[in-house]
Amino acid sequence: MDSQGIFSVVSGWLQPSAASGSVDVANALFRVSLGGLIFFVHGVHKLRGALAFLRSGQPWALEKEVAEIHVPYPFASALAATVVQFAGGFLLILGLATRPVALVLTVTLGVAIYQNVATRRDPQLAALYVLGVATLAIWGGGRYSLDALLWLPVGGPHS
After folding, report:
1. Exposure string for 118-144, b = 16+ CB within 10 A, e = fewer
2. Is 142 helix (H, G, I), strand (E, B) or coil?
3. DSSP 102-154
4. What pLDDT shows up at residue 22?
5. Quick one: CA torsion of 36, 42, 44, 45, rounded to 10 degrees?
């Protein structure tokens, strides 16, 4: 496949789907709310823990939890999950690269489900996040996203 073909495949994947006005608004509300929760509640919180560990050696609960489920390189793995949730949540808010970001978050939060089950904690919240980001991986960013601004033709999806 040549570079033009690759670009066509990538742009087709990033291009939001056409929908009615109310569906577009619902998609934006869902995407921004879910991205905000992942970014602010999980990403920022975990990033603060990582920075405290790096600055002062203060124990980082996430690193300990990752080590408990025997994931190799627990610090690096915990840091990767933190960066994905921090950056991914922010990108969902913007609606930028929504489908690939949501796909990466689906995998990352899928590991969180496993982590919760393995440590005998309730996995319901992680499962809800996985369902939400998997939905966005299918839907895309919608009309009210940076994806639409960058990938839709001028005048909308039917131009």
Report:
1. eeeeebebbbebbebbbebbebbbbbb
2. coil
3. HHHHHHHHHHHHHHHHHTT---HHHHHHHHHHHHHHHH-S-SSSHHHHHHSPT
4. 85
5. 140
Tell me: pLDDT of 126 over 70.
yes
Res. 106: pLDDT tops 80: yes
Residues 6 or more apart in contact with residue 60 via CB below 8 angstroms: 49, 50, 52, 53, 75, 78
Position 2 scores a pLDDT of: 81
Each residue of 55-105: pLDDT tens digit?
A: 999 999 999 999 999 999 999 999 999 999 999 999 999 999 999 999 999
Residue indicated by tokens 């921004």: 32
For the chain, domain boundaries: 20-140
Residue environment code for 40-73, b if the CB has 16+ CB neighbours within 10 A, otherwise e: eebbbebbebbeebeeeeeebebbebbeeeebee
| pLDDT reading at 5 higher than 90 | no
Contact 150, 97 (CB under 8 A): no
Compute the distance between CA of residue 88 and CA of residue 47 in angstroms, rounded to an integer: 13
Distance CA 63, CA 44 (A): 15
